[in-house]
Amino acid sequence: MIPLTLAEVAQATGGKLHDVPDPQALVTGPVVHDSRQVVPGALFAAVVGERVDGHDFAGRAVAEGAVAVLASRPVGVPAVVVDDVVAGLSRLAHAVTARTAGTTVVGLTGSAGKTSTKDLIAQLLGGLGPTVYTEGSFNNEIGFPLTALKVADSTRFLVLEMGARHKGDIAHLTGIVRPSIGLVLNVGTAHIGEFGSREGIAEAKGEMVEALPPEGCAVLNADDPLVRAMAARTQARVLLFGESAEAQIRGEDVRLDASGRPGFTLVTPSGSAPVQLRLYGEHHVSNALAAAAVATECGMDVNQLAVALGEAGSLSRWRMELTDRPDGVTVINDAYNANPDSMRAALRALAAIGGRGPGARRTWAVLGEMRELGEDSLAEHDAVGRLAVRLDIATLVAVGGREAACMELGARNEGSWGEESVLVSDVDAAIALLREQVAPGDVVLVKASRSVGLERVAEALLADGVVSNGAGA
Ligand SMILES: Nc1ncnc2c1ncn2[C@@H]1O[C@H](COP(=O)(O)OP(=O)(O)OP(=O)(O)O)[C@@H](O)[C@H]1O
Ligand SMILES: [Mg+2]
Fold first, then answer.
1. How far apart are CA 12 and CA 181, in angstroms?
2. Which atom of ligand 1 is nearest to the CA of 111?
3. Closest atom, ligand 1, to C-alpha of 190
């Protein structure tokens, strides 16, 4: 972090110093909310969580070298006392990032693919200069300011994932740290219950581009009409990405290679170049184009982009994570989350990995419910079951209740018979079935909404010693 005295921390947060012998003592960072992460020079934020109260760890944090504690009451050790620690963190993040004129802030949001895209952007921009970015999906009211507070004088890029559960969430975050490049990936149906409709979701996500300054850049998905329309809501310049003809950063001739990894021709104002991703699944094409657009805006040319995109791997787990067992069974763990688009992409990748003709491998799609789809839910589950059959997936194992039953019925109505589709009630039943029937050489995809917990299936299959192929995705 940028070094600040305790007096400056108090000023930035609107707090008061307590038990501080030297207001000029320097906080050099990091700012942490877990006392186990304290190092000398740190500021410890005493957050009150559901199970633990950070104030109980104030003494330990200072003993470990924290310069002071950001707290909501005096704690007997040096502290900056504020009304609300989380709000104090946000004010501090605001003050710190306002001082870093040399840092370009990139904000991104969307219904699906934020973390995957953020990880791609971080890898691309990392080639241009020191880059700070959200770890995993640490984008909540605590993770967001803590990430921003990692910026140092040398930081050239700060890449922030911004999630929205309610209207006003993105506006709140951009009020804390204002991006100059704002990316909106897509408007899907995640949390549609909260927002009422896809238009409601678009309304909320569009707050990203409303926050941009006139000299900034709104990076928008040309292939998603609700995102494309956000061009009217910003004073910033607009840069479009996608497969549509009007996209300035465009993917043409999209194809999957034999192992399910997408390739395409990247077309930019600086020319075009072939790109082959290491990530699995066609949905990453859109993510890669979005990342390429942001990196273009930051000064990368098409040849640099093609190389960097081809080298980029996954920095976050359970997203099309491919592992080969010693006996030749391949497990694709995509249990992080699921929506209709990513289900289709994952099934196509599975079919590509399985291959066709002599030498084809037996494919298993172990799929659970896609949550939060609202009124389209049953139709979407039916469509996934049908697609599995059309793609010639050998066996669909639908896991769960009504939605899973609907998926399995869709498969049967599309013409699956015998063992081509089965319905099991829960994760344990799926594990038992697979343990009994999966044979060397098979490929198993595991995917559902996060809360279904289907990663346990992948973990069980991999339990007996593994050889990772290293690429991840
Ligand atoms: N461009 C995309 N379109 C549709 N689905 C996608 C796309 N990119 C990723 N996904 C799917 O969404 C899941 C979550 O991906 P990722 O973690 O990148 O999204 P996220 O927006 O960060 O999610 P969260 O809201 O949980 O933070 C992946 O497992 C994948 O199935
Ligand atoms: Mg995320």
1. 25
2. 21
3. 25
The ligand placed nearest to the CA atom of residue 450 is: 1
Quote the ligand 1 centre to 58 CA distance (angstroms). Answer: 37
Backbone dihedral angles phi then psi of residue 423, each to the nearest 5 degrees: -110, 125
Please, which residues bridge with residue 57 across strands?
none
In angstroms, what is the span from residue 120 Cα to ligand 2's centroid?
13
Nearest ligand, CA 110: 1
The predicted-structure confidence for 304-335, as pLDDT tens digits, reads as follows 999 999 999 888 888 889 999 999 999 999 99
Q: Is residue 253 a contact partner of residue 265, using CB atoms and an 8 Å limit? A: yes
Q: pLDDT of 179-211, one tens digit each?
A: 999 999 999 866 667 787 889 899 999 999 999
Ligand 1: residues within 6 Å at CB? 110, 112-116, 137, 163, 186, 283, 286-287, 319, 334, 336-339, 341-342
Residue 271 has pLDDT above 90, yes or no: yes
Ligand nearest to the CA of 318: 1
Question: What tokens appear for 240 in the block?
Answer: 């479009």
Does the model's pTM come out above 0.85?
A: yes
Other CB atoms within 10 Å distance of the CB of residue 440: 11
Q: 77-135: per-residue pLDDT in tens?
A: 999 999 999 999 999 999 999 988 899 999 999 998 999 999 999 999 999 999 999 98
Helices (H), 107-182: 114-126, 143-148, 169-176
C-beta of residue 308 within 8 angstroms of C-beta of residue 300: yes
Cβ(134)–Cβ(118) below 8 Å: yes
Strands 157-161 and 131-133, by their bridges, are parallel
